[in-house]
Structure formats: structure tokens, C-alpha cells
Amino acid sequence: MKFLNNSKVIAIASVVLLACLLVFYRFSIQRVPNVQSSKELVVLTHNAPGSYYVGGNGEFAGLDYDLANLFLKDLGPEYKIKFITVDHVSEIIPKLKSGKAHFAAANLTVTESRAKLVTFGPSFLGTQQYVVYDTEHQEEPKGVADIAGKHIHIPAGSSYAERLKALQAENPKLTWQEVNSGSTDELIEQVTSGFLDYTIADEHMIALLQNYYPNLGKGFSIGGPQEIAWAFPKHLDPWLYEKASRFFERIQKDGTLKNLIDRYYGHVERLNTVDVTKFLEQTRSTLPKYAKLFKEAQELTDLDWRLVAAISYQESHWDQYNTSPTNVRGMMMLTEETADEMGVTDRLDAKQSILGGARYINQLKKQIPERIPEPDRTWMTLAAYNIGFSHLEDARVLAARMKLNPDSWADLKTTLPLLNKSEYYTKAKFGYANGGAPVIFVESVRTYFNILEKYAPAYEPLLPSFNLGSSLK
């Protein structure tokens, strides 16, 4: 029997030791514990308008954030949730693969290369990627040749690189830089400020940010439509994945998903560039004159002063002497009847009009069923402010008849415009109404409010309001 020499023994021992170390390393990685045993759902996300951010009222918001919290309710009251945020999109998949979270909810686009690394859940939002440019200083790019050789940045780890590589095959002069120092919204701001030639963004992000940057232009699309979904590690928990699949199946059927998408993106294309430009100019020149009065209205009613200001702008463009042909007047364009009811003696007095209008909004809000969650309850209140509570109720009854959700603003946007059609208003209790007007009114106010949330700070009264009305959540 031959014995191995010392060098061979050492070589074999080294291989065995290395294998043991690899196994030890593999199992020593700290992975999140099983959800069912730990009763804690750990979600990986990214600070961005499309997924997870702190809203104007200081509370967390975002489509992915809301979806994850709704999913938590499906798991049961004994479960809790923990969000882990990353600074850059490029960190999401590596952290997910290393077991730092149960899944990633971070506005992730489903791509072929990503699908090799993670398992995607059901898609819940469609999107299309476009070239972004500055309309004030650039011609609209119509194709790859227009952006080749230009200064282009995209977020590192984003799906945009895959599409750009396909375009590069057509035009080798097309180059770009992947940067960790900027998110999509930050890069868009650099484009609109003239520091960057182009970037790439999803269409819903472009539509949202066009309300903040009126010179933000949408050029040509790169590639075809894509889908957004949650990402799970390849070593996924079958029980959790099945739960998530059933969750998305349910919310697609019962309208919950539609309502959430409407909450974040349903109003973003309401205004055009001229509207946004004028509003931003007015926030600098006119709003400071009346800001104190809007804040007094918040002290009186608990309504966010920026919401009251947004309503006032939609009504009068902050013109205290505005008067319509039907004799509605002032900052909040009150009718004589409403003014009398609210104790307003001079509708052209800015203070009386703003405070009276805010009180009237709160009065209407108390008539909206409390079971209706925010922000839908507030949007319905504003619709009633515009068209009257009776016609709003007709639209809600019609929604129920059409097997839509009468407690959903997204569904009422469908039924309100039908109140001007004879086949519907002849069966309505309160008859004909120009139902399209309140939809335009509410969606415009929503956009103005979002803009003010970005540029105007929240107001915290020194003393709590004595009004029983609730603020917009």
C-alpha cells in the first residue's frame, strides 16, 4: 500500500479546509429569519417618489410602501413590518441575494438580466422608458443620433443600461455614465437645470416631475413597454411568495390596486406646462401675501394650509376680487348662499373668504361617510365643494349600480361625468349635472397641492385646533 507524500496530503487538506470554510461562510451569512416563525416581514426599498418617501405631512408614503403595509394586513395582526432602505438602486439586488430582506419593493422594472438573479412576483404597474430633456434649451430628441455623443447619466444598477446597450448597437457613438451619486429624480433635476444633457426615466416618474419642473420634456422611448414588480430572492420562501401572489390577485380584482395607483399617479397629467409655470410663478409672487391667512384657516379647521391654498388657486388664482358671471366671488369663489351660511359678510375680503371656504369644506367633509379612507374622503369632499353634495351622492349611487366602488374616488371619476348624459341623469335623484367639472377641479387641486407640498413647508400651529374636522392624511 502506497502512502501519499507530504505535499499531496497538504494539498488535499487545503482543499478540504477551503470547502469547509466555504460551507461555513455560506451558512454564517446572517439571513432574515422565516416570516412565519419571526412574525416580522423585512422589506428592502429605496427612497424615491415611486416607492418610499416622507410626504408633506411628515408621514411615510409611496406606492410600494402602501402595498407592503396592505400585504402585512393579509398576513395577520400578529405580524409586523420593517423597512430597510438603501441609498442606491444598485444595492437592492445584492442585498436581497445576501438574505437581508424577504423581498424588495422598490419600483423595480422586470428585466431579463434581473430575472436571472431574483424571482419577480406578479407585475402591478406597466411603464415605458423615455429620454428626458430640457425643453427650454434643447430640441426634442427624436432618435439615437440626437443623443449620441452627449452628456448622459443614469442611476447605477438601474434597468436603463440594458436598453441603452441595445441602442448602442445601432449607434456606437452613444455613451453614458452610470452614477451612484444621483437617483432618477435628482438626475432629472440636473437636466432641467442645464447641468446634464439627458437622462432616462419611467413615464410615470416623468409625468409626476413635470408638475415640479415645467421645462421637463419627454423625448423618444427606448425599447418597448415594461412591468414593475416586487423582487424575491431565488431561495424564496414558497409560503410567502404564494401569499404575495394571492394578495396581488385579490387587490387587482377588488379595485384596491386601481385606487392606490390613482392616488399616486391618477392626477399627474391634469395640468399642462403653461399651468404649472404660471402656478410656480404665482407661488413666488402672490402666495406670500396670503400665506398667513391660509395658515389661519389650518388653525381653525385642521385642513393643511397648502390644501386650502391649492383650492383657492384653482378657484380664483388667488385673486381676492375674482367674480364669475354667476356671481360667485372672492378667493374661494363662494356663492351668496354659502357665504351667508358661513357668516361671510364680504366675499371680496380675502380673510373672510378663505376662512369661510375652509369651514365650508370641513362641513361638507362631515357629510362624507367616515368609513371612506383618506385621501378619497377629501377628494370626494372637494368634488362636493365644486358640484354639490347631492350630485356627488348621485354619482356614488350610480357607481354602486354599475358594480363599481362608491367609496373610491378612482371609480367616481368614471361615474361623475355620466351625470350629463340623459340615459343616466334621468334616473338620478337630483338630475342633470356637469359631472366632468368636479373631476377636473379635484385632479387640478391634487396637483397644485402636491407642488406646494414639495416647495412650501408644512405648518405646525402653536395651539391645537378647536375644530372637530380632521386633516388630510
- Note the gap between the termini: 82 Å
Q: Tell me the fraction of residues in β-strands, as a range.
A: 5-15%
Oligomer: single chain
Spatially, the strands of the biggest sheet line up as 4-1-5
Overall pLDDT confidence: 89
For the biggest sheet, the summary is: 3 strands, parallel
CATH architecture label of the largest domain: Orthogonal Bundle
The total domain count is: 3
Protein structure class: mainly alpha
| Main CATH class of the largest domain | Mainly Alpha
- Percentage of residues assigned to helices: 40-55%
In short:
The chain is mainly α.
How would you describe this structure to a colleague?
The protein folds into three domains: 35-126 and 229-265, 3-Layer(aba) Sandwich (D-Maltodextrin-Binding Protein, domain 2), CATH 3.40.190; 129-224, 3-Layer(aba) Sandwich (D-Maltodextrin-Binding Protein, domain 2), CATH 3.40.190; 273-455, Lysozyme. A three-stranded parallel sheet has the order 4-1-5. Strands 11-8-12 form a three-stranded antiparallel sheet, covered by helices on one side. It has a two-stranded antiparallel ribbon with strand order 2-3. It has 21 helices and 14 strands. Helix 13 crosses helix 14 (305-316), helix 13 (287-301) packs across helix 16 and helix 17 (376-387) crosses helix 18 (389-401). Helices cover 47% and strands 11% of the residues. The protein is globular, with a radius of gyration of 27 Å. Mean pLDDT is 89; it is low at 21-28 and 467-473. With 473 residues, the protein is mainly alpha-helical.
